[in-house]
Amino acid sequence: MGRPIKAIRWTCDHAGSEFGADSKTISARLRQAGTGAGEDGKFSTRQIALAVFGDIDGERLREKRHQANLLEIEEKRIIGEFFDAKRVIQIWESQLVALRTALWNFDAPEVTRRRWMDELKAVAVAEYQENPLPVEAAEE
């Protein structure tokens, strides 16, 4: 049988010089992957190889997930569960303009009409970009 083979352990500097890569880049990729050094402060060959050459299986999985997300968005758009945000904003803005115009032309004292305009301006756009409760539910 023979002696057991001792695993090679790498520092980022040693790996950088061996693989012709910047040790800071290797270190950053290890951190990004959530890979920590062992008790000896070094990394395994597999960890270094993944940092230097990348993880093809991980990349394929990310690509598949991305494609699945795009398909889900398209499916929701087709069945009407997903709306074009730009179009919704355009419609909302045009409705606000129409509402402001109608209120401004309403037969009421100017001070009242200005108060209405100020109240409309005070409504935060963010309130409409989230999922607010319907008026009936909010009053309960």
SSE inventory with pairings:
Elements: E1 9-10, H1 12-19, H2 23-32, E2 43-44, H3 45-53, H4 56-79, H5 85-104, H6 110-122, H7 126-129, H8 135-139
Antiparallel strand pairs: 1-2
Helix pairs in contact: 1-2, 2-3
Explained architecture:
This protein is an all-alpha fold and 140 residues long. It has eight helices and two strands. The chain has helices at residues 12-19, 23-32, 45-53, 56-79, 85-104, 110-122, 126-129, 135-139, and strands at residues 9-10, 43-44. The protein has a two-stranded antiparallel ribbon with strand order 1-2. α2 (23-32) packs across α3 (45-53). The longest helix has 24 residues, at 56-79. The radius of gyration is 30 Å and the shape is elongated.
Structural class: mainly alpha
Report the average pLDDT across residues. 84
Distance between the termini: 79 Å
Q: Main sheet: which strands, in order across?
A: 1-2
How much β-strand is present in the residues? under 5%
* β-strand number: 2
Radius of gyration: 30 Å
How many helices does DSSP assign? 8
**Low-confidence segments, ≥5 residues, pLDDT <50?**
none
Large-scale geometry = elongated
Largest sheet: 2 strands, antiparallel
- Please write the string of helix (H) and strand (E) elements: EHHEHHHHHH
Percent helix, as a range, is 55-70%
Keywords:
140 residues, 2 strands, mainly alpha
Q: What is shown here, in short?
A:
Helix content is 66%, strand content 3%. It is mostly helical and 140 residues long.
